[in-house]
Description:
CATH architecture: Alpha-Beta Complex
Number of domains: 1
Distance between the termini: 21 Å
Amino acid sequence: MSETKTRTFKPGDRLVLATHNKGKYRENAALLAPYGLEVLSAGDLRLPEPEETGATFEENAVLKARAACVATGLPAIADDSGLSVTALNGEPGIYTARWAGPQRDFFVAMKRVHEELGDSADRSGFFVCNLSVAWPDGQGGVGDTASFEGRVEGTLVWPIRGERGFGFDPMFQPKGFDITFGEMDPEKKEAMSHRAVAFAKLSKALLEGA
């Protein structure tokens, strides 16, 4: 995973968040808000979603960032994230969204995790987020890229609890807490999530004034 400082963003710069997921866009845009950047959404721009053919979170995040960068000619940040369940050998992992099916029904995905865990005493897991950045090379392609990863450990609960957040949040109780991300105040969750951990690394390296 690369965390080498390449270029930096400064107030007034435009960039694209390479996601069609409104929850991810909302969280990432909120993290970027203090830096005075103009943040666009791949969904709002109606960019096509590239096929995620990578074998890791980083490979998929880089792939998405590069696609948005080429399509717009702007720097792009992509988020690839998911849930890894210890007793399921790390699944669903990079296939987290696919477990929710074509309708992105995460209740279906959470129920599948619960059923596959069965009577397992090990209910541990962790969220992973990789944030990758791609800069245009000025010739219609991609120049530098950089990637930053964060994770948060927790326990998978059933029945699910809470209606906040998105994805697996109602099933995930972060370590040291007795409530799930689905029950947690959004601002509190966003400050400690796997996405926040990855963003802290990105901001230290790439955001002026961080």
